[in-house]
């Protein structure tokens, strides 16, 4: 792809680094921005700079937040004894959209994946264990994707929490095995939360 402008080429190069965006799509997006009023491009730039400079992570659940405590953790209407363990903010948004869950969350920041060099200490598992051992949590809901990495992460946390008096459950496997949680439709995901099952015995770990 030949460019008549180095500025255009640089913009296309940067946009094409975004997930799922090829160079042709990047070019189309950049040309679209060029056709818009400068004020619109300025608002986009300001929003991205503010995102990078001001975004925080909730001190309780590690969700992306505008303040030290996110709106969910700060709400007096949430059930503080129930914690749903998810991979990232996309899963929080997916579950919240169902309207069927009123507890809190704990965002791990990923899943255990030796192939990608992600181990337990790269995630927020430690703070989850501390939170549970404080005695305020009565139920942990595992809501990671039904993949090998998700099951491995669930089982690791389960082992870390053995001996603690609480209920461990997992969302019902209405979510197809191998699918990411964020792509599940709201009805299926909502039912999976409501019809959650005891974690122990819900799957047999590899080598177990």
Give the SSE order as H and E letters. HHHEEHEHEHEHEHE
CATH class of the largest domain: Alpha Beta
CATH topology of the largest domain: Dna Topoisomerase Vi A Subunit, Chain: A, domain 2
Number of domains: 2
H/I helix tally: 8
* SS elements, strand count: 7
Overall average residue pLDDT: 87
The chain-level structural class is: alpha/beta
Ends distance: 52 Å
Index terms:
alpha/beta; Helicase, Ruva Protein, domain 3; 8 helices; 208 residues; Dna Topoisomerase Vi A Subunit, Chain: A, domain 2; disordered C terminus; two-stranded antiparallel ribbon
Condensed summary:
The protein contains eight helices and seven strands. α1 packs across α2. The protein has 208 residues and is of the alpha/beta class.
Topology summary:
Blueprint: H1 6-15, H2 23-35, H3 38-54, E1 56-57, E2 64-65, H4 71-74, E3 79-86, H5 89-96, E4 103-107, H6 125-133, E5 139-142, H7 148-160, E6 167-170, H8 186-194, E7 197-198
Parallel strand pairs: 3-4, 3-5, 5-6
Antiparallel strand pairs: 1-2, 6-7
Explain this structure to me?
This protein is α/β, with parallel strands linked by helices and 208 residues long. The protein folds into two domains: 49 residues, Helicase, Ruva Protein, domain 3; 121 residues, Dna Topoisomerase Vi A Subunit, Chain: A, domain 2 (3-Layer(aba) Sandwich), CATH 3.40.1360.10. The protein has eight helices and seven strands, in the order αααββαβαβαβαβαβ. A five-stranded mixed sheet has the order 4-3-5-6-7. α7 links the parallel β5 and β6. It is elongated. The protein starts with 5 loop residues before the first helix and ends in a 10-residue tail after the last strand. 25% of the residues are buried.
């Amino acid at each position: 792809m030949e460019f008549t402008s180095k500025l255009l080429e640089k913009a296309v190069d940067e946009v094409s680094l975004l997930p799922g965006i090829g160079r042709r799509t990047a070019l189309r997006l950049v040309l679209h921005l060029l056709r818009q009023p400068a004020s619109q491009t300025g608002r986009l730039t300001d929003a991205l700079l503010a995102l990078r400079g001001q975004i925080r992570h909730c001190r309780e659940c590690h969700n992306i937040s505008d303040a030290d405590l996110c709106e969910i953790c700060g709400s007096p209407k949430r059930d503080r004894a129930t914690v749903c363990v998810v991979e990232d903010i996309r899963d929080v948004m997916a579950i919240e959209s169902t309207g069927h869950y009123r507890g809190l969350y704990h965002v791990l920041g990923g899943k255990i994946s030796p192939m990608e060099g992600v181990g337990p200490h790269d995630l927020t598992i430690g703070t989850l264990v501390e939170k549970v051992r404080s005695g305020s949590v009565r139920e942990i809901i595992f809501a990671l994707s039904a993949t090998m990495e998700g099951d491995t992460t669930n089982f690791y946390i389960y082992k870390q929490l053995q001996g603690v008096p609480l209920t461990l459950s997992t969302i019902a496997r209405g979510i197809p095995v191998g699918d990411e949680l964020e792509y599940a439709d709201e009805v299926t995901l909502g039912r999976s939360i409501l019809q959650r099952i005891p974690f122990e015995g819900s799957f047999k770990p590899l080598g177990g």
